Amino acid sequence: MGEAARHPGTTPARSWLRRAATLVGVALLTGLVQVPTATSAHADTGSGSSTAEVDVDSLTPTAPAKNDTLTISGTVTNDGDDTISNAHVGLRLAGGGPLTSRSAISNTAANGGFSTVDGNEIPGHTANLPDIPPHISLPFTLDVPVSALGLGNDGVYQLGVTASGTTKDAAYQHVLGIKRTFLPWYSQSGGEKTRTTFLWPLIDRPHMDIRTSGDDQQSPLFRDDDLTAELAPGGRLEQMVSLAKGLPVTWVIDPDLLATVDAMTKPYKVLGPDGDPKQATPGAGTEYAKQWLNELQQAIQGDEVVALPFGDPDIASIAHHGKDVSGTLGHLKDATDLAAVTVQTVLGVTPRTDFAWPADGAIDPSIVGVATAGGADKIIARSDSLRETGALSYTPSAARPIGGGTTAVVADSSLSKAFMGDLTRADAETLAVQKFLAQSLMINEQAPGQQRNIVVAPQRMPTTSQAQAMAAAIAAARSGGWTDPATLSAAAKATPDPGANESVPSADAYPASLRRQELTTDAFQEIQSVQDSLDSFLVILSRKDRVTTPFGTAVLRSMSTQWRGDTDNAAHFRGDVAAYLSGLTQDVHIIDKKSITLSGRSATIPVTVQNSLAQQITGLQLRLTSSQNNRLDVGQPQAVTVDGGHNRSLKFRTTASANGKTWVAAQLFTADGTPYGQPMVFQVNVTSITDTVMLVIAGGLLLLVLAGIRMYRQRKRRALLAADNTADEPQEPDEGHGQAAEGGDRVPEQPGDPAADTAAESPGDRAAGEKVDR
Fold first, then answer.
1. Phi, psi of 53 (to 5 degrees)
2. Strands of 660-669's sheet, edge to edge?
3. Is 277 exposed, middle or buried (0-12, 13-18, 19+ CB in 10 A)?
4. 223: closest CA among 178, 192, 268?
5. Long-range contacts, stretch 566-572, CB < 8 angstroms, 24+ apart
6. What tens digit of pLDDT does each residue of 7-29 get?
7. Is the dihedral of CA 717, 718, 723, 725 positive or negative?
8. Burial of 156 (0-12, 13-18, 19+ CB in 10 A)
9. pLDDT digit string (tens) for 676-715?
10. Interatomic CA distance for residues 682 and 377, integer angstroms
11. Residue 182, SS3?
């Protein structure tokens, strides 16, 4: 019937109501049923107790003393189709005294409609309401002296805030709605107080990008500017700090958040659409970041600070998927070492770094092993993972030795999960606070003569409303008188309860829902691939610190617990880191050339190395290799050092032994002989002695031979003629001899002189030589 009232379109339910009203009318006419009055016991039959919704927005004091007046305020909403008349709100105390167990608290919260076990309305202390039309809410405030409740022994009492009235179909006073809550009652103040440790987490997802803006100041780049709203007044992180001032908490901080906010205290930029650094815009959170850090430094004074490994690496994911990937455990140790330095630098305090906190406090043997390998000997677990076996009748202290010198600090599951869910409505927040106080007091009442240490580990990133509920609960428990605050270190050192479970659950017991959220083995392999590339890149840099810090922290952020449930953004982050590193390594490369011609037996081949980085590179060696070593000797390797933003051309003296085409590869190597970058391959055309030169030389030799033969014949003929003339004529001076000589055959120009050799030189040879030496 209550569900029918909430959904007026449900025809069968409305028919049932009409039939019920008809039967009541017939019974009245026959005298079988007496009309109940407001003070009659029949007024509490609970008929239609889901017609109205009761919200308790405030209950003060949350843990009252005997002379206090309980003030309850909230709203009554008519969820039915008929007007509620003669309405009033009253308070009921469930009969039977205080609740007897922690499970009774959980069961009470889940109860349905009103029943007689909710007790009678406290007479004389009600709040009347005007008529409530359908789907209308009206506020109420109810004041009830604690003395009127008749509370007895210390403990947790169940309260019921009820809305009563009449409706068209039931024209008598009856309960139309109820909201149950809890009242912790601690008046005798006897016995030992429970020492309670409340963890206060300052954690957020990664926001910084691996790149810088590229401006003169090298301003940091952020993937988004969401932290600005978080740090601004009223934002989640601002509230986490302001609410905890003066509260006895142990701060659990991800140092990456501190480093990120510290970067925001200086000018920074935010990536443009689709992560475009060229469209980056100035960040807006600088002043908020400065103020937040100042307030945090003040808030933590006198409190214990626990630093998680930098970036809050997901140790469960590492244990299940990453520990067998080379280098992953080393990253976890680096994150622990960096944590202490970061907190000391930003906050000026020395944190504890010996605690590990797996997601939701769920552990198994592999998680414990990874945590200890990372440097922790204390693991924050949760009691729904390390469950009790029933050997104890009370909730034991948090500390449990689990072997190997490791202590599991087991947070109470019910207390830790009390502030999960949507607490934006005041009603939900009030109930969460009262339920927390009820569970806390019940722990104390289980063994009031025995002091125990209880730990509360809430969700890693509480919302603003959840943080407000947490702060209210801590303050109320402190003032209630049954707890004393304690640090996490004190809880870890406390003497364990004999009989408490100290057995780490098996891997099969690890929750499947958590396992589905973990980083995969492929993800860890991608992370290690980036680290391998980074190691190869660092050996050539003169200023390694400019690269190790941003990439080292990016690798740690790639393993963050905050990527759980956000696999797409996790993959994008890893991909961006890998792409940026690849781009940097390619900024040092050999400039391409397609082909080159060598026209002599020996010549030089120039190869140019370009360095587009902003720092000098050194420690590289450039080697040339020929596909045909018997044809072309490419010379010896050469060391490479290039200033930032410059090119350097190295010349290799080569020797050719034969004509033809040869492929040559130019490759950079690091000092240990590891190839750096991709080889640059080009073709060399060897033309040591060209065909044209051979023809010219052969032609010249032939001309020389022919000229010599002709000169010999001419001289021989002249000698014969001279002999004949001497025999026939007297010897007289020959006046006409010179003329004869002039008229005779002219001796030709002798080939093979220097001019001829110069003319025979191939212009192609000179051009080829200029091309190589350019």
1. -105, 125
2. 595-598, 675-686, 660-669, 617-626, 638-642
3. middle
4. 268
5. 566/205, 570/519, 570/523, 571/523
6. 333 333 333 333 333 333 333 33
7. positive
8. buried
9. 999 999 998 888 555 555 555 556 667 777 777 777 777 7
10. 59
11. strand
Count, residues in the chain: 774
Residue type, 245: K
Got the DSSP string for 467-512?
HHHHHHHHHHHHHHSSEEE--HHHHHHSPPPTT---PPPPGGGS-H
H-helix or E-strand spanning residue 416? helix 413-416
- Cβ atoms < 10 Å from Cβ of 743: 9
Distance CA 525, CA 521 (A): 6
Least confident of 251-260, 572-581, 601-610: 601-610
Report the C-alpha dihedral over residues 224, 227, 233, 237, rounded to 10 degrees: 160
Q: Hunting for tokens 């210390």 — which residue is that?
A: 154
User: Backbone phi, then psi, for 744, in 5-degree steps?
Assistant: -75, -175
> What's the mean pLDDT in 366-387?
97
Q: Report the 10 Å Cβ neighbour count for 387.
A: 14
CA 527, 532, 535, 536 dihedral sign is negative
What single-letter amino acid sits at 677? Answer: G
Phi, psi of 481 (to 5 degrees): 100, -5
Count other Cβ atoms within 10 Å, centred on residue 235. 18
Q: Which of 310-319, 600-609, 619-628 has the lowest mean pLDDT?
A: 600-609
Pairing of strands 174-185, 155-166: antiparallel
Q: What pLDDT, on the 0 to 100 scale, is given for residue 732?
A: 42
Question: Model-level pTM?
Answer: 0.81
Alpha carbons within 13 angstroms on the beta-carbon side of residue 562 total 22
Asked if 627 and 609 count as a contact pair (C-beta separation under 8 A), the reply is no
pLDDT of residue 1: 33
Res 44 pLDDT > 50: no
Strand 355-356 relative to strand 304-307, pairing: unpaired
Ranges 53-62, 140-149, 625-634: which has the least confidence: 625-634
pLDDT in tens, 508-566: 999 999 999 999 999 999 999 999 999 999 999 999 998 999 999 999 999 999 999 99
Q: Residues 239, 468: contact at Cβ < 8 Å?
A: yes
Sign of CA dihedral 219, 225, 231, 232: positive
495 has a pLDDT exceeding 50: yes
Percent of the chain whose pLDDT exceeds 90:
72
Contacts of 706 (CB under 8 A, 6+ apart): none
Residue 718 is predicted with a pLDDT of: 73
Distance between CA atoms of 241 and 300, rounded to whole angstroms? 9
Exposure on the CB side of residue 573, measured as CA atoms within 13 A:
28
